[in-house]
Every structure is written in C-alpha cells, then in structure tokens.
From TrEMBL:
Belongs to the globin family. Residues 1-81 form the Globin domain. Monomeric globin with a bis-histidyl six-coordinate heme-iron atom through which it can bind dioxygen, carbon monoxide and nitric oxide. Could help transport oxygen and increase its availability to the metabolically active neuronal tissues, though its low quantity in tissues as well as its high affinity for dioxygen, which may limit its oxygen-releasing ability, argue against it. The ferrous/deoxygenated form exhibits a nitrite reductase activity and it could produce nitric oxide which in turn inhibits cellular respiration in response to hypoxia. It comes from the Eukaryota. It comes from Chelydra serpentina (Snapping turtle). The keyword Signal does not apply. It catalyses: Fe(III)-heme b-[protein] + nitric oxide + H2O = Fe(II)-heme b-[protein] + nitrite + 2 H(+). GO terms for molecular function: heme binding; metal ion binding; oxidoreductase activity; oxygen binding; oxygen carrier activity. One of its GO terms (cellular component) is mitochondrial matrix. Keywords: Cytoplasm, Heme, Iron, Metal-binding, Mitochondrion, Oxidoreductase, Oxygen transport, Transport. Its main location: cytoplasm. The gene is ngb. It is found in: Cytoplasm, Cytosol; Mitochondrion matrix. This is Nitrite reductase.
C-alpha cells in the first residue's frame, strides 16, 4: 500500500519511480513471486476500493485505478525481464 501511495503521489511523474519499482520487481522475483500473482493482487485492490467507495467507485474511477496499478506492475516487470535476460 505504501508503494501504491507513492505512485499516487508521483502520478504526474511516475518515471521518477522507475528504478525503485524495477528493483522491487527484481526482489519479488528473487523471493519466488510469480508474475501471474500480480493480477490477483490487482483484483483485490479493485475489490477493496469498490467496497470502500461504494457508488463513488464509478467506471472512470475504476479505469483510473486499473491504469495506475497496471503502470506499477509494468514498471516492476522491467526488473523481472532484465534479470531473466541476464541469466
Ligand atoms: C504491485 C504489487 C505489489 C507491490 C507494490 C508490492 C510491494 C512490496 C514491498 C514494498 C515489499 C517490501 C520490500 C522490501 O522489504 O524491501 C514487498 C515484499 C514482499 N512481497 Fe510484495 N508487492 C506486490 C505484490 C506481491 C505479490 C503478488 C506477492 C506474492 C504473491 C508478493 C510477495 C511479497 C513477499 C513474499 C515479500 C517479502 C520479501 C522479503 O522477504 O523481503 N508481493 N512487496
């Protein structure tokens, strides 16, 4: 949640988090996290937001959160791919 918070705070300049997120992705790969598990975490995040926000969780809000989470996962995946290629 701290990382999602940081992503929201840096929404206008997400690239400033690129290096940190790539390293975080690398760390997850090292501890055995599968890339597929990220979709389960994303679905949980959206489910939690839907439950908390109720009717305020409009299609636009859902789309915005889906994009934000997607950007975080994409940036984390960069660390993943780089590691695989290096092996
Ligand atoms: C976008 C999604 C995720 C974010 C933002 C995230 C973020 C983080 C952060 C910030 C840490 C602490 C890293 C540190 O100690 O330096 C961490 C650790 C960890 N995460 Fe995630 N995580 C995500 C998804 C997942 C998923 C899908 C799994 C597994 C199903 C997972 C498993 C773990 C584990 C096992 C650790 C502990 C690693 C250790 O032993 O230090 N994470 N995660």
């Amino acid at each position: 949640m701290l990382v999602i918070d940081a992503a929201v705070t840096h929404l206008e300049n997400l690239s400033s988090l690129e290096e940190y997120l790539a390293n975080l992705g690398k760390k997850h790969q090292t501890v055995g996290v599968k890339v597929d598990s990220f979709s389960a975490v994303g679905e949980s995040l959206l489910f939690m937001l839907e439950k908390c926000l109720g009717t305020a969780f409009s299609p636009d809000v859902r789309e915005a959160w889906t994009r934000l989470y997607g950007a975080v996962v994409k940036a984390m995946s960069r660390g993943w791919d780089a590691r695989k290629e290096g092996e």
